């Protein structure tokens, strides 16, 4: 795989806060077949990790995604621990990031899968994640050594207030939303980058799984295909939530089943007024442009974009 040097993304900054320590990428030693799964967050990250894990391990029952596929730029546990664990892996490695492209060290050999989801659906899932976090969650993020900037506080009781704060302060209290989407959209034509959309996974998961397998150069064992697909369904992941949630779900009230929550879109429609919903759509258009905003909302690419892909 060859990427012209003028197209090769370059790391231009560090991002550090209660969650991030992007400096870990400066020391990560890539292998030529590494897989990096990226999202803003709550966009189908764990689902895609499950899909990739099932493709790599050919439908195995006991693949513990959080254990073998870490969020590399999460600042806990310490990066020395995480880097050593990744170096010790002998299977094809797959890991996740929530960083924008310009805060990553980008490998021209690795394969990158970026998953998009309508920001209103992201927000509803993010609120569940944040509101049901327990004291251990906040202690890990706020009190562990190395935090940069403000503490992460509990969310307001009103999800509507949460929504407006997140939009008005661009991703607060987590990290900027629009730049994350835009940075990956801008490199969508690179040969080692693939865009996937949450809605497309919902509409045709087996078809999207085959598309992912082809992108990763993984030959599907058709005899194991029914098991591979079954193990990536929401119902299966909910029943085996402890294998999907970080540390088995100990950071959330209700455990792993809270982390693997609904897996649905459109819950905001019953809460937001038309004006409140249009506020998001207006900001998406202003920050992303028409083609990217359309893709993020629907998973649909323009005719030009489909042809280029």
TrEMBL record:
EC number, UniProt record: 2.8.2.-
Ranges where the Sulfotransferase domain occurs: 33-288
InterPro entries for this protein: P-loop_NTPase, Sulfotransferase_dom
Molecular-function GO term, any one: sulfotransferase activity
Keywords assigned by UniProt, alphabetized: Transferase
Family membership: Belongs to the sulfotransferase 1 family.
Protein name as catalogued: Glycolipid sulfotransferase
């Amino acid at each position: 795989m060859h990427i012209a040097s003028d197209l090769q993304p370059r790391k231009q900054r560090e991002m550090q806060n209660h969650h991030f320590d992007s400096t870990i990428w400066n020391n990560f030693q890539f292998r030529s077949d590494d897989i990096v799964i990226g999202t803003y967050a709550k966009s189908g990250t764990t689902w895609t990790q499950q899909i990739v894990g099932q493709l790599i391990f050919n439908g195995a029952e006991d693949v513990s995604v959080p254990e073998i596929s870490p969020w590399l730029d999460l600042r806990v546990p310490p990066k020395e621990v995480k880097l050593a664990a990744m170096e010790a892996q002998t299977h094809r490695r797959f890991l996740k990031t929530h960083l924008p492209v310009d805060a990553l060290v980008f490998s021209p050999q690795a394969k990158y899968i970026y998953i998009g989801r309508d920001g209103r659906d992201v927000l509803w899932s993010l609120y569940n994640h944040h509101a049901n976090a327990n004291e251990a969650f906040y202690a890990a993020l706020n009190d562990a050594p190395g935090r940069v900037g403000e503490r992460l506080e509990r969310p307001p009781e009103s999800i509507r207030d949460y929504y407006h704060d997140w939009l008005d302060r661009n991703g607060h209290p987590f990290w900027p939303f629009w730049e994350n989407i835009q940075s990956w959209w801008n490199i969508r034509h690179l040969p080692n980058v693939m865009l996937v959309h949450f809605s497309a996974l919902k509409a045709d998961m087996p078809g999207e799984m085959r598309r992912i397998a082809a992108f990763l150069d993984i030959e599907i064992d058709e005899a194991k295909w029914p098991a591979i697909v079954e193990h990536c369904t929401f119902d299966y992941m909910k029943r085996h939530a402890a294998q999907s949630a970080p540390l088995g779900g100990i950071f959330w009230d209700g455990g792993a089943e809270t982390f693997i929550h609904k897996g649905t879109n459109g819950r905001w429609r019953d809460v937001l007024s038309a004006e409140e919903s249009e506020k998001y759509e207006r900001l998406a258009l202003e920050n992303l442009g028409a083609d990217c905003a359309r893709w993020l909302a629907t998973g649909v690419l323009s005719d030009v974009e489909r042809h280029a892909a």
